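so my prof wants the structure for this chain in the tokens format not the other one, which i didnt know existed until like an hour ago. anyway here's the sequence
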Amino acid sequence: MRFLNFDLSALPSYKEHVLTPLKRPTKEGEVEPLLLNLGTCFGQDIRKLIFDGAMSH
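here's what i got, hopefully its the right format
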């Protein structure tokens, strides 16, 4: 049941270095920030990011 832990959001730099870039809309010509979620099987961290305000696309 460890997959129920939100490990990513527990990191000290979560808001500044992970969430903030994913919340910021990109300007034309900019590369969109990307978070690649590997090995969790359920996408819990991705769901938490979207709940916290990250863009879902």
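also thought this was worth mentioning. The first helix runs from residue 14 to 23.
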